[in-house]
Amino acid sequence: EVQLVESGGGLVQPGGSLRLSCAASGFTVGSNYMTWVRRAPGRGLEWVSIIYSGENIYYADSVMGRFTISRDNSRNTLFLQMNSLRVEDTAVYYCAGGEISVVHIFDYWGQGTLVTVSS
Amino acid sequence: QAVVTQEPSLTVSPGGTVTLTCGSSTGPVTSGHYPYWFQQKPGQAPRTLIYDTTKKHSWTPARFSGSLLGGKAALTLSGAQPEDEAEYHCLLSYSGARLWVFGGGTKLTVL
Q1: Starting at the edge strand that comes first in sequence, how are the strands of the sheet with A3-7 ordered?
Q2: How far apart are CA A96 and CA A18, in angstroms?
Q3: Beta-bridge mates of residue B65
Q4: Using CA atoms, how far apart are residues B4 and B29, in angstroms rounded to an integer?
Q5: Rounded to whole angstroms, how far apart are CA atoms A67 and A19?
Q6: Considering only CB atoms, which residues of chain A are within 8 Å of chain B?
Q7: Residue A65: alpha-carbon gap to chain centroid
Q8: Which of A42, A53, A55, A107 lies most in the core, judged by the most C-beta atoms within 10 Å?
Q9: How far does A52 lie from chain B, in Å, by closest CA?
Q10: How high is the mean pLDDT in each 10-residue block of chain B (111 residues)?
């Protein structure tokens, strides 16, 4: 059974940093496509970032230059380093992943971790 | 940047049929946008129902189906059940899968 478990969320002041983790079991992070999606209060889902094979990485304009996606294959874990956080980054952050195909990227989802950016 | 549009809310009677749509500001939605449909209930993570326009996962109830309809992606629910009351999100791919854009979501009420 595939399980993705996010952690690292919490309360942070504007301008601060957080690193989210997404630990996988029954699934190999390094051999699949992985992505981060968020949902802000009262808003819809927003795609954040994606890492394909060969380390091809892309970001939404809203986080470009502030967020960095990465993975540690030895720990079978996906990360999202979030810097220069803004109030509007407040959201539940989900990791998702699937086999190496653009039609399977969002097969599996974690339960989410809440990030609150507030002074 | 592309904007993806969905109906904000829809209502369907139990046992009834409803179609949710997903449009793109850049033009007709095609299979090249790799349309996805997700179901999300309050306090839960999204769950993928449809991928690649029409394909279903093993966990997708048979009453859900995906298609292209009038230049949009569509999710049709035939024989609505009370447990189908949820928010439904579509997702489209742009620029060779370098950019993914969600629609605003459709809140579906079964009443």
Answers
A1: A3-7, A18-25, A77-82, A67-72
A2: 19
A3: B76
A4: 10
A5: 9
A6: 35, 37, 44-47, 50, 52, 58, 60-61, 94, 96, 102-104, 106-107, 109-112
A7: 15
A8: A107
A9: 10
A10: 96 98 98 97 96 96 97 98 98 95 98 93
